[in-house]
Design a protein that fits this description.
The complex is a heterotrimer of chains A (234), B (286) and C (327). Chain A has 234 residues and is of the alpha/beta class. Chain A contains 10 helices and 10 strands. Chain B is mainly α and 286 residues long. Chain B is 74% helix and 3% strand. The N and C termini of chain B lie far apart (38 Å). Chain C is mostly helical. Chain C has one domain. Chain C is globular, with a radius of gyration of 20 Å. Classes of the chains: A alpha/beta (234), B mainly alpha (286), C mainly alpha (327). Chains in contact: A-B, B-C. The interface between B and C is large, with 47 and 43 residues.
Amino acid sequence: MLEVRDVTAGYDGVPVLRNVSLTVGKGELVGLLGANNAGKSTLINVLSGIVPVMSGAILFEGQDIAAMSAPRRVDAGVVQVPEGRLVFPQMTVRENLLLGGVNSTARPNRSRALEHVLSLFPRLGERMEQKAGTLSGGEQQMVALGRGLMAGARLLMLDEPSLGLSPLFVQFIFGIIDKLHAEGLTILLVEQNLALTLKHADRCYVLERGVVAVEGRAEVVRDDPRTRAAYLGM
Amino acid sequence: MEELLQAIVQGFFVGSTYGLLALGMGLVYGVSGIVNFSHGDFVTLGMYLCLALFSAFALDPYVSIIVVLPVMTLLGAIVYQYLIRPIAGRHLLMIIQLTLGLSLLLQNALMMTFGGQPTRTPSMIESKLFIVGDVVIRGSHLVACISSFALAFLLYFVLQSTDVGRSIRAVQQEPRAAALMGVDVGRVQVMTFAIGIGILAIAAALLLPGLPIQPNQGLRLTVITLLVFVLGGMTNFVGIMLGGVVIGVAEAVGTIYMTEVLGQLLPYLIFIAIMLFRPQGLVWRS
Amino acid sequence: MRPEFFAQLRSPVPWIVLAVAAVMPFVLPNYYLHIFTITLVYAALASAWNIVGGIAGQISLAHSLFVGCGAMLSSALLVRYGLNMWLGVIVSAAAAAAIGAMISFIDFRFRLGHLSFALITMAFAEMAEIYVTGTEFFGGASGLFLPKDTGDFFAFQFGGGRGAFWAMLAMTALCLLANLAILNSPLGYYLRSIRDNENAAQAIGVGLLRNKTLAMTISAVLTAIVGAIYARYLAFVDPYLLVSPTLTVEIILFATVGGLGSVIGPALGAFLLAPLGEILRGHFGGSLPGLHYFIYGAIVVAVILVSPAGVWPAIVSRLAKRGRQKA
């Protein structure tokens, strides 16, 4: 479904990612691991079209999207749930969710998508008219995730969904991720939390200083000594 | 007493249009973080376009809106795309400098085209007067007031309940997330600037009947707009309309009760006081 | 004071420029000498503004107030009370310093951001114009006429065109010197750190109130003195010229075009634009009033888009590049 070929990208002419290649198959849950500053967030921002590609190709369902603008990629179904949630604080939960479905592909199915999101997060149903900025961190993560689902994601990219959440909420969010995975959604999960990701993902990539250091099935990655080395920065 | 009532009513009516001027500024500030110091010159431009249409085709200023509104909106889009966008996000000083330059440019283009003499443009309802009790209401003021509030409500409705409006607010609150949701941030910024200038076309036509205009009035109109804008808490709709009314009334009351100089100073004194003691504006919601 | 300050003063270039400029009254016809004098006024004003706007990065829109203070107050004191204009200049410079310090204090006390500072100073400038044009003491809307310039130096008279030129030349040199001295002193270092990041500056112990106030008062005093000399030169003290916020806009635009924050930049901007403006006004003032402002506006917009740092930094970096290529 997604194929990243030899992508080099970075900011102001300085590459952060060097010759990164990666694939995500349809319906797969792929984990993207690595220490701070390994380039994980840069990679999904490249996929979202926020950070430009210097060289290489990004194929989404066979089509090269490397030159596509960020809004067009959302139309195509490549949707990111950003790190730190970034809800629209002055808007109600309902408005946040509706904005998720503002792109041209998702708009016609908005009411159905909203029902689906509310069935996943019944708690949001109770808070529909509350300003998103007044919610707890966990609830905001629900809004962010729901907003991404409203966008009609065919590839959902989650950036650090567990960041700053209580263990109970982390468990809940990952439960939802599993459920979406079981429904057949393709997911790229960026996480610092090694154990958690290995437990839920089908396959994993470990980035180290902008290059792919380890890749393979979750068990393989877990047992590879280079994984731990990449984390410890050795 | 009658004098006071008269002044309050007139100040209220004119102030509502000041509110409209500041709404345009607030919208743009919220979305792009830009304070446009050529705001008043765009209003003046709108007035002169109405004047030109009146001189050429004897069009009433209210009718001219049909032409002036699209022209100004398009101009706003062009100005944003080619002049402001390249420096958007840079130091505030640069934006102030650029828009001050733009102000000189516009003001003196008008000066060269229309000359510096004060000119008035009549309107069909300019001389209509309504008398309610002891208060005399000018027809043009009434139209300005009703139209300004109607337009403010319309804008508020669009912002609150349409996808376009939500996209604008999304860019205002969290531009990165808006982009990730497929909102074209650049386009929203161009659009809001164009709308902001377009509103000025309407405000210009509303203020015009009976008002002597001069090409160099722009800076003063910018200052009045800034006063209202800050008073209203910059992006708060209700606050801005209220700020417009406060400045309008302060101006009108000031000129009858105090010496002329002090009366003219009153809006500025209120502005400085508010700036210092209530920097969040008059209306404040947590 | 860092050694660079003295090194730059020992360099022959500024002295040669000054000497060449000083003989201009013997060379230039009256009309061009007049243009040169006006240019010097703007160069001095832009340099003085640079201390606050360029070096410290505080967008002051209040400088027309300081010009007006120097021009109107000293003139009014002379015309109304017969006060010696030297004393008048001292009084009005002190008044400008006090107003500047008050603005700085308000800025500090209420922790104004850049935007609020610009707006408040703009409000002060507007109020100053309304106040002066409405007050009989300052001559109201019609302004004041100063007594004939008989060349009596002790009465702040410089003897017509030549004398005024030399006085302005000295004043411009003083403003440039003040910029150079500040940039090469601890004050300049503090001000630049405030410009770049106010919080970080405070964190390393740079006193905001003290340094901002110092910059503002120095700038205000210089500006007021320039205003007084300008008023004396014009002999007719017109509030719509000298207390008009448009004057501040011009000053800022000249400084911007030349390049903020450097010693030469703001004055250079004035030298590029002011003569052009004066000549255009001379030729087209009757047929196309406003043409010179229109061109100013266009140039400013173009400079900000093409070379946002201004003309002088662009020249410096071009020269530096060429120097490197040769080496």
